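The passage that follows is intended for readers who have already worked through the single-chain material. We present the inputs for a multi-component assembly, then the predicted structure in tokenized form, and finally a short commentary. You are encouraged to pause after the input and sketch how you expect the pieces to fit together before reading on.
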Amino acid sequence: MKVLFQSADADAQASLDLLARQLPQAHFDLWPQAGGEAHDVAVCWKPPPGFFRGRRFRAIFNMGAGVDALLQDPELPAATPIFRLEDAGMAEQMEEYVAWAALGYLRNMDVYVRQQERAEWKQLDPRPRENFSIGIMGLGLLGQRVARYLHAMGFPVRGWNRSERGIDGVTCYAGEAGLSKFLTDTQMLVCMLPLTPETQGVLNAALLAQLPRGAYLVSIGRGLQLVEADLLDMLDSGHLAGALLDVMPQEPLPADHAFWRHPLITVTPHISAQTLMEASMRQIAEKIDAFMRGESVSGLIDRNKGY
Amino acid sequence: MKVLFQSADADAQASLDLLARQLPQAHFDLWPQAGGEAHDVAVCWKPPPGFFRGRRFRAIFNMGAGVDALLQDPELPAATPIFRLEDAGMAEQMEEYVAWAALGYLRNMDVYVRQQERAEWKQLDPRPRENFSIGIMGLGLLGQRVARYLHAMGFPVRGWNRSERGIDGVTCYAGEAGLSKFLTDTQMLVCMLPLTPETQGVLNAALLAQLPRGAYLVSIGRGLQLVEADLLDMLDSGHLAGALLDVMPQEPLPADHAFWRHPLITVTPHISAQTLMEASMRQIAEKIDAFMRGESVSGLIDRNKGY
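Having made your guess, compare it with the prediction:
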């Protein structure tokens, strides 16, 4: 079996080495060093334009959960199955990230951090956990894990998904019809949706205005889901009390961007779920193995849905 | 039954009203308005010098968990039983506060917040939750609750207590003999000890040096347990990576204090467990009721131990 390996990350060779150790029977070529030979499968991450030109693969394995960038390549072979990375340590990290946000906002830690800057010793009224409801938008594998974790921590959790989902202890809403009801009582909205034509710009004024006054936003899906000007308006009007953003329309976020300096915005550099290279390469090796044996492989992309 | 009510807080009358509603058969006097009449019991919070002069009570009910200030009053009647507030919403708040600290330090959120100040987009290496162990010093009612909560969240949790304690899933150490072992593998030390002559200054260089390099300190017991200069040395030498302090030797923390401006110190204004007045007054009413009926009452202070 011949594998063409491509990664936009700086440590491509290290990742390839990890994968090769898991698949000792395979031959690996690292793009772009590899010539025009035919390969059975591609393992790739953010391939540049032209990567697919003149190539055919039996399957493509995406080294991340999101395939929005990949699907925009006009030269992507139309019929080739694409498999994405599932979890591989990402769910655990997202649980932690969202739980940190929920606890911090619940307890006004963002306000205390700002008070420290001016040496201000002032207690705010406590609010009980059972009144601080967390709303998860996007109940895929990761969204479900986060919802369950927050529920186990004693938070009231509600979820919204395009299609119906059921999670023990979590109030679930679905589709356009369920969106307003979902938003009305959500104190902290967490966007975990995949990026598709429908979710681009979904975090806009019309949606955010349906949250109760003083709500918070946590954005960990994709940067293009957020309408930046609308968020700034909502914060400046006092409708939203704070936002924690891990994904940006442009990454890295330019140094002169308003988000960096806004007192109610916390910026993190796309770290809510960092790829854990060893776990990821182990999972991709297992997927390739299963595919080559003709077994069913999970994580198949539905191109109509876009994820 | 006659109750003398005293509170150093601004909203003393509001607290008294809440308590009076729970004990409709009792007569209340609010100190210092009340004259020299005899009272059956005192309900007090940080009574000033002279409060106990010439007074006798059958019991004293303390409107907080810590009695360190009360026990220092030389006029405190020697034989009168003292009962303290237990939990009353404090455990839930402490769970949240410590969990926020654990998740934030685990995920380097303190570093990302500092990076934001200089618009720096830089990802740090992730570290797995299972390698980030939380060490709770002081396994009373509150410490046990916090230990269980963090354990349920998937953190490795260890505990230390003066006397032996057993908590499911938590590695427990006891006494002087167990202290070094407890500290050696603790990534985040949480001090929840009561303030006694033995615990004053317990967070000193000798103890902190036994934590592994890069460890964190969370101080939510009492401010006088911390040797300030030792903490600053440990942070400046790089032995400790950060400290979250909720209690100070002097409260409010003076505006010119070094803690406010230290980049590795987060200061909160004694809010890790704020008294929830309604729950507290309900508990104290139940304790008074039980005491007057001759039943056993929990939360009795052992003056030899100091808590």
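Commentary: The mean pLDDT of chain B is 95. The longest strand of chain B covers residues 2-7. How closely did your sketch match?
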